[in-house]
Design a protein that fits this description.
single chain, alpha/beta, Aspartate Aminotransferase, domain 2, Aspartate Aminotransferase, domain 1, 2 domains, three-stranded antiparallel sheet, 12 strands, 14% strand, binds pyridoxal-5'-phosphate
C-alpha cells in the first residue's frame, strides 16, 4: 500500500495484485479444460460458498438480478401479487417483481441504519390487505450497504402473514447477524458478484442459497431453461441464467482472500468511526452484527451541505458517491406502481446521504486523509 497514492473509490487492481498468481493458475486451468459452461469450478465454488455461510444449498447464476428473478419465478409470483421491498435500495430489487407482472409495494427504512423498517412493513401489509386489490405474497428484505436487515423481526412478520422471504444480500455477503453469516436468514438468499460488490467477479454473476432441497432443484432447472432430468426435457419456462466457469474461477481465487478483505474493510470503517463520529452522522451499526462494508455512508444536514462536502472532498482528491439520489418510488419507471403511501425517511436520506471510499486496499494513512478532508469541509 502506497500511502501517497491517489485515493480510489474502489481498487480492483490493488486486490488483483494480492492474488495474481493463484488467479492466473485458476484461469489457465479453465483455458486448458475448455468447459466454459458449468465446468468443475462452478460446482467447487457453490460448495465453497455454501460452506462459507453455512447454507445447505448454493446455486450459482448469471447475476444478482437473475438470482432475485429465479427465486420469485420458483414461487410462481406474478400478476396480482404484492411484493414488499424497501424504497431505499438499488433498482434491481423493484425491477424483478415488475418483470414478472407482480407489484412492488415500497416500505420505508430506518433513518440511521438505512435498513428496511419492520414496523412500516407491518403497516404496508395492512394497507394492501385493506385495499383488497393485491395478494401479499413475498418480502424482499435488502441487507443494505453491507449491514444485515433485522431478519428475526422480518421473518416473524412474514411467517404470521404467510409471505415468502427473499434476502437481497447483493451488497452484504460475508456480514453476520447474531453470530451467523447471512445466507439462511430467509427462505432464499440472493447475492451478486458484480465487480464492485465485496465479493466481486470480473463480470456479472450471482448465487442463491436455500435450506430447501426442492427450491435448490427448481433454481437449477430455472437457470437452464427449465430443464428436467435430461437436457432436452423442458418442464417449465426458465431462462439462460448460469454463472460462467471463468467467473467461478476468478471467484475461487478471491474467496481465498475474502476473510482478509472483510477484515480490511472493517479496519477502514473503524478509522472513520473514530475520527468522524462526533462531527458527522456516521452509519449506526445494527446491534450484534458484522458488516461487509460495501458502502460507508454518512449523513449531512441537508442537500446544500452535501454539495459543499462533495466539492471539498473533490478538491482534496477524495472521491465520493451518492447511493441513492432518488428513492425507488420517485423513479419514473416505478412511480406508476406506487400506491402513494408516504415514505419520508427514504425521501430524506436521498437528499443528504453520501458515501466515502472504502475497500481493502485503502491504507490507514489514506483513510486518515479521507477523514482530514471530511473534517475540513464540515
Ligand atoms: C447489485 C445489486 C443487485 C443486482 O445485482 P447484479 O449482479 O448487478 O444483477 C440487486 N440488489 C442490490 C441491493 C444490489 O446492490
Amino acid at each position: 500500500m502506497n500511502d501517497h497514492a491517489p485515493i480510489r473509490f474502489l481498487d480492483l487492481a490493488g486486490q488483483q495484485a494480492r492474488m495474481a498468481e493463484p488467479l492466473r493458475k485458476r484461469i489457465e486451468t479453465v483455458l486448458r479444460h475448455c468447459q466454459f459452461i458449468l465446468g468443475p469450478e462452478v460446482a467447487e465454488l457453490e460448495s465453497r460458498l455454501a460452506g462459507f455461510c453455512g447454507a445447505a444449498h448454493c446455486v450459482s447464476v448469471s447475476s444478482g438480478t437473475d438470482a432475485l428473478q429465479i427465486a420469485l419465478m420458483a414461487e410462481g409470483i406474478g400478476r396480482g401479487d404484492a411484493v414488499f421491498l424497501p424504497a431505499f435500495t438499488y433498482t434491481a430489487t423493484a425491477e424483478v417483481p415488475l418483470l414478472l407482472g407482480a407489484t412492488p409495494v415500497f416500505v420505508d427504512v430506518h433513518p440511521r441504519t438505512f435498513q428496511i423498517d419492520p414496523a412500516d412493513l407491518e403497516a404496508r401489509i395492512a394497507d394492501v390487505r385493506r385495499a383488497g386489490k393485491l395478494a401479499p405474497r413475498a418480502l424482499i428484505g435488502v441487507d443494505l450497504f453491507g449491514q444485515p436487515a433485522d431478519w428475526p423481526a422480518l421473518a416473524a412478520i412474514a411467517s404470521r402473514e404467510h409471505l415468502f422471504t427473499l434476502d437481497d444480500c447483493a451488497q452484504s455477503f460475508g456480514a453476520s447477524l447474531h453470530g451467523t453469516r447471512l445466507g439462511k436468514a430467509a427462505d432464499a438468499t440472493a447475492i451478486s458478484f458484480f465487480p464492485s460488490k465485496p465479493l466481486g467477479a470480473y463480470g456479472d454473476g450471482g448465487a442463491l442459497f436455500t435450506e430447501s432441497v426442492e427450491r435448490a432443484a427448481l433454481y437449477r432447472s430455472l437457470r437452464t431453461h427449465g430443464e428436467g432430468t435430461t437436457r432436452y426435457e423442458v418442464l417449465r419456462t426458465g431462462m439462460n441464467g448460469r454463472l460462467d466457469t471463468l467467473q467461478a474461477a476468478v471467484l475461487l481465487a478471491k474467496l481465498d482472500i475474502f476473510e482478509a478483505d472483510l477484515a480490511a474493510r472493517e479496519r477502514v470503517a473503524r478509522i472513520y468511526d473514530a475520527r468522524l463520529g462526533n462531527r458527522v452522522a456516521i452509519p449506526v451499526r445494527v446491534p450484534d452484527s458484522t458488516s461487509a462494508w460495501a458502502i460507508y455512508a454518512i449523513l449531512l444536514p441537508d442537500a446544500a451541505a452535501r454539495d459543499r462536502m462533495q466539492e471539498g472532498l473533490k478538491a482534496a482528491g477524495v472521491p465520493s458517491a451518492i447511493y441513492y439520489p432518488k428513492p425507488l418510488h420517485r423513479q419514473p419507471a416505478y412511480a406508476a406502481s406506487h400506491d402513494g403511501a408516504a415514505l419520508p425517511v427514504s425521501e430524506d436520506l436521498a437528499t443528504r446521504i453520501m458515501a466515502l471510499p472504502i475497500h481493502p486496499d485503502l491504507s490507514d494513512a489514506q483513510a486518515q486523509r479521507v477523514c482530514d478532508a471530511v473534517l475540513a469541509s464540515v
